[in-house]
Amino acid sequence: MANKTIEVLHERCMGAGNCVEVAPDFFDQDPMDGTVILLHPQVAPGDEAVVEKAANVCPVAAIILHSAAS
Amino acid sequence: MASTNETATLRKFPFQRDWPLSQPPEMAEVRKIEPISKVQLWDGSTAWLATRYADIKQLLNDRALSSDTLRPGFPQSSETAASFRKGQRVFARMDPPQHDVHRLMLTADFMIRRVRGYRPYLDAMIDEVFDGMEKSGGPVDLVQSLALPVPSRVITKLLDLPPEDSDFFLDRVQKAMSLDSTPEESQQAGTDTLAYFARVIEERWDSDADDLISRLVRGRVRTGELTPEELQHMLHLILVGGFDTTANMIALGTLLFLENPDQIKKLRENPDLVPAAVEELLRYLSVAHHVAYRQAAEDTSIGGFDIRAGEGVIAPIMAANHDPEAFPDPEKFDITRDARGHLAFGYGVHQCLGQPLARVELQAVFAKIFDRFPNLRLVEKVENLEFHNSIIYGVESVLVDW
């Protein structure tokens, strides 16, 4: 099964940090302004649930999970 | 605009609770029969009310809706709330893009990694607070002895202010936000706090220290990005945002646990449940019960209803967090449930800036309190306690013994 990929819409990010709390292996915060840093765009099938949760708790919907190109 | 006949049949909002810790029964009823409806407010104006989790989430992230309370016709929960907000010039009440510019000046200071660094300080401070309770001997008022001192000390630490000034803040924040204050009292309390911050900004004008206020003065005010007045309001917002909210979470959270001794047992048997328990407390109590008021700046829609520019919209956090579609059996306080998707800190661009700090404070308190006081109990029954219906929901005092 192909990996899904994460896209972050940086201009939307408010630095709430929920993604970092839920999925610290994938997201971090910029020490200058707290906005999102994407650590790994590739999501192995076993990690999909946690990344989906991170996308779901992002208050400005700045995290998009793309299915592999079909 | 609703006609007189239409207005006469509308439900009055806010709804009344029949049990101090639960959602108003009318909220559950309305969610079932008319999940999106129009309601009438204290001043006779009308607004849309959403009661389902999915709708509330969508509305709070809808950029057609404005948070700017200075807009004519902006819906308000009460006369005091209207008066309190009239004096506010803060990014919580601004819309993007201006909101984003101001908020992003603060986000780094409230980042999870940074805020977690407070945990050792918090653990030591909370131990001290518990020592004080033990020394004075029961019964003690949990609000005065624990719930208020914890966030007030954290704020004085965060802003590097003298700890003894926390009594001043406490008094003014309560006066500013209480629905029992007259509009004049509420406004005066806000003016006093702004004057206090004006003095601090002046004192730190030439400071090269590393505290948040000195850094903002140096990096934002002296550079012309922020006026001194804007910084006063920003500091006021940090104060109001972090004080009453966390204090009431501590007091009401302890109360909710004491009403559910089986959950205390679970927590003590498995300390790993502390973070989940805090999320469940946040969901269940939803203390920010009169904050999610908006006004449509442009036409938009929700659940098949058209909202026209100028109309008021209310998207109550409590309604979302007690929607059985999102949280099965919502009136059950269950620290083992996955409550993480709750909207207790709001949603959209205005979601609480201080949420990582609130979480770490609450986790520090609830990790210890029931081990330190295993026989903690209420002196009075919950129904005899006095609850306050401010912008933030809370309790006046809670006598406990052990």
From TrEMBL, chain A:
Reported cofactor(s): [3Fe-4S] cluster
Source organism, top-level taxon: Bacteria
Keyword Acetylation among record annotations: no
Keywords attached to this entry: 3Fe-4S, Electron transport, Iron, Iron-sulfur, Metal-binding, Transport
A family per Pfam: Fer4_15
Signal peptide: none
InterPro entries listed in its UniProt record: 3Fe4S_ferredoxin, Fe-S_cluster_ET
Task of the protein: Ferredoxins are iron-sulfur proteins that transfer electrons in a wide variety of metabolic reactions.
Descriptive protein name: Ferredoxin
